[in-house]
Amino acid sequence: MSDLKLAPYGMSIGEGHPMVVMAGMNVLESRDLALRICEHLKGVCDKLGLPYVFKASFDKANRSSISSYRGPGLEEGLKILADVKAEFGVPVITDYHTPEQAGPVAEVAEIIQVPAFLCRQTDLVVAGAEAVKARDGWLHVKKAQFLAPWDCKNIITKVGEVTGPKNPTILCERGASFGYNNLVVDMLGIPVMKQLGVPVTIDATHAVQLPGADPRTAGGSTGGRREGVAVIAKSAMAAGADGVFLEFHPDPDKALCDGPSCLPLEAAEPLLKTLKTIHQAVRA
């Protein structure tokens, strides 16, 4: 398996390394809130001895409604992410949506993310591979809801053709869709993807989404089953995941995006403590 390192932060992901925590907020709402969430989560991870990456999106292009909140946009969003990095000395992860965004995003984010629905877009994947190769970063690829785990080998191959043998890909499981406003996570897919030779994470937040089924908006936004986040995350650690991807908010019901799927900040420490224990037990 690839042994990926973020040298400036002394962070590695994969076999023989601690569980990596990619956590933050769904979409940037304000600079102050981003700093508040990062401060809390970094403190928890420092206490538990876990490597931490701050996560937030500057734009959520895949929305149920044209009127849904999308974020501050590329320019302002990258400024906020840069401020978070400067304040707390942590790497950041954020997604990009077009090939043209890959370079500017990688200037700020050590880990750039391919959204699930776009993971088969060759131009997007190649642009991301080129951007992280130039900066020795990581490419976090969400497995599409319509893609079989073993078919992710084609994504890894595309990246490798750009980067050479030092493939920076991390695959992320986030559930499969069969319609009917639901997602199903097959934990057998995690070891299958790891057999492709790259680290694997679990996006336990988006895995509990109920797409287009938020009763608060009569289906005008995505619903979720917040109580399922811990179940998915713990199961994935038991299945061998190398890292976890989670979203938090001080008041999830007031979050501007995917509130039904995110957790309150106070849930971070007990959940991450349990996940660390499972991760260590599996590798022991």
From TrEMBL:
It is found in: Cytoplasm. It catalyses: D-arabinose 5-phosphate + phosphoenolpyruvate + H2O = 3-deoxy-alpha-D-manno-2-octulosonate-8-phosphate + phosphate. The keyword tRNA processing does not apply. Residues 10-280 form the DAHP synthetase I/KDSA domain. Its EC number is 2.5.1.55. Transmembrane segments: none annotated. Keywords: Cytoplasm, Transferase. GO terms for cellular component: cytoplasm. Pfam families: DAHP_synth_1. Pathway: Carbohydrate biosynthesis; 3-deoxy-D-manno-octulosonate biosynthesis; 3-deoxy-D-manno-octulosonate from D-ribulose 5-phosphate: step 2/3; Bacterial outer membrane biogenesis; lipopolysaccharide biosynthesis. It is an enzyme of class 2 (transferase). GO terms for molecular function: 3-deoxy-8-phosphooctulonate synthase activity. InterPro entries: Aldolase_TIM, DAHP1/KDSA, KDO8P_synthase. Belongs to the KdsA family. This is 3-deoxy-8-phosphooctulonate synthase. It comes from Henriciella mobilis.
